[in-house]
């Protein structure tokens, strides 16, 4: 198989109805663009969903950090560069650079992915795919100048915010609650007046366990620093032995 470039570049548009009241691209839609870029990149190189799914395997997102100096505005055209900077047996790390026209840099992303068996839902050996083909695409030279995801720390002081039900439109191609849907639900914990005075600079999310259509999700929020908030999501009935953590997230806002 002829090797392609290690870095993939994909063009996107900030569609107006994917933007908020301030004409800024929603973080959730940006997240979708990053995940699409990752999918395009891996499929083009032979270890993506097109190859994996018929072989009862798939990629699942484990961690994602996005840090933006500015968000694309409605009708802005931008590119997403994506590349792998490390691969091990069960996890691989993938970076992103979001750029506008004339070399403008909007921001960067870092992510961690696992490959799982779709029957057992357990991790499976990434390096067994095409005799470790993914290692031919590891690029350790291209910089990604943002911090890696941190460990989200919360304590018993977290405030319960709400419980939501999950439905058909929350579920993705892997049969569990969509990674980006969690992002949207988390950001909905802040009202429109808050976003009128702040913009989101950095967003981190760690996926701890799967949840599925019909699960009830409980949201807990805690202010952990100046303009810094952490969120924990659980599934199951609140305050019972059946309540289990599924997601942790951290956000850093900047006042406008």
UniProtKB/TrEMBL annotation:
SUPFAM superfamilies: Thioesterase/thiol ester dehydrase-isomerase. Residues 159-237 form the Acyl-ACP thioesterase-like C-terminal domain. It comes from Segatella buccae ATCC 33574. It comes from the Bacteria. This is Acyl-ACP thioesterase. PANTHER family: OLEOYL-ACYL CARRIER PROTEIN THIOESTERASE 1, CHLOROPLASTIC. Coiled coil: none annotated. One of its GO terms (molecular function) is fatty acyl-[ACP] hydrolase activity. Pfam families: Acyl-ACP_TE, Acyl-ACP_TE_C. InterPro entries: Acyl-ACP_TE_C (IPR049427), Acyl-ACP_thioesterase_NHD (IPR002864), FATA/B (IPR045023), HotDog_dom_sf (IPR029069). Belongs to the acyl-ACP thioesterase family. The lineage of its organism: Bacteria, Pseudomonadati, Bacteroidota, Bacteroidia, Bacteroidales. Residues 18-127 form the Acyl-ACP thioesterase N-terminal hotdog domain. Keywords: Fatty acid biosynthesis, Fatty acid metabolism, Hydrolase, Lipid biosynthesis, Lipid metabolism, Transit peptide.
